[in-house]
Design brief:
Length: 147
């Protein structure tokens, strides 16, 4: 498995959880569970992706700007999750923020897959892609187990 395949697996889960989240209403168990799944997935993915995809790409001049941009978007999503954590789930503002988060997740994943992966594919060799995938998966699983 290469790094792109490993990242895409998490991306599919993120899309599913983000879509499920905005289909919920009020302060009910489905909303609580959907948010918990999305937040856990995003946090584990972000940490592992930054360590085993973006940081290695920053070693190359061509990878610096795209890595900074992606990490900045991770930070924006983290801030939205903080806002959700501080808001009552039953309030209309909660769903508005959840929709913004879902839109940001979809935008970020599309940008990664259609733009960043192509650039990274030219920077990294096949061995690096496999090595980074192994590191990413290990870190991702560790992050999930501690959340």
């Amino acid at each position: 498995m290469n790094i792109f395949e490993a990242l895409r697996e998490s991306h599919e889960r993120q899309r599913t959880y983000a879509d499920a989240l905005i289909q919920t209403s009020g302060d009910n168990p489905q909303r609580v569970e959907a948010y918990k799944q999305l937040k856990t997935e995003l946090q584990a993915h972000e940490t592992a992706e930054e360590r085993f995809f973006y940081m290695p790409l920053m070693e190359y001049d061509e990878g610096v700007d795209l890595s900074r941009h992606a990490i900045s978007e991770h930070h924006e999503m983290d801030e939205m999750m903080e806002q959700l954590d501080e808001t009552e789930m039953s309030s209309p503002g909660w769903l508005a923020t959840a929709k913004k988060l879902s839109e940001k997740v979809h935008h970020h994943l599309k940008e990664e897959e259609q733009k960043f992966f192509q650039m990274a594919g030219k920077i990294l060799d096949d061995k690096q892609k496999e090595t980074l995938a192994s590191g990413y998966i290990k870190e991702y699983e560790e992050q999930l187990s501690t959340s």
